Amino acid sequence: MDYLPDDNSRYKDIDYWDERYKTEQSFDWLGCFSKFKHLLEKHVKQEDSILILGCGNSSMSGDMYSAGYRSITNIDYSSVCISTMGARYSHCPGMTWQQMDVRQLSFPEASFDVILEKATLDAIMVEEKSPWEVSPDTACFIHQALTE
Question: Which domains does the chain have, with CATH numbers?
Fold first, then answer.
């Protein structure tokens, strides 16, 4: 499978992600844990409750767990991804995996101390005319997601 679609709007399509995650083992958008470690150590306490939006098949949460972060909730649009990653990290108590659309989060307000996002918003905003002037619906979604 070609991981770069011909049309960026495919990034919002669940079938694209399910097919991709059936064959791709791991991919870290924007960089792996080691690239962000210094920022996380500075701003995130190991005992914080962490939500990772659009976790994908990144090793980020597994690497964070190995570094001492123990309360990590991972969500992704793709059930294929969640099933695979849940099995891969089944040995990590305190790390959970849930299939969920980030545009319709079902957590009670203030459930998490920290929310991490590495390019999930890029997939959400593929049809925006400008990433600097987003539609009211997208702005509302971003606000809702970041105040979970």
Answer: 8-120+133-146 (3.40.50.150)
Q: Which residues of 68-100 are buried (b: 16+ CB within 10 A; e: fewer)?
A: ebebbbbbbbbebbbebbbeebeebeebbbbeb
Inter-helix orientation angle 14-23/79-88, to 10° = 30
Q: What is the pTM of this model?
A: 0.79
pLDDT in tens, 19-50: 888 887 777 677 788 899 999 999 999 999 99
Element (H, E) at 16: helix 14-23
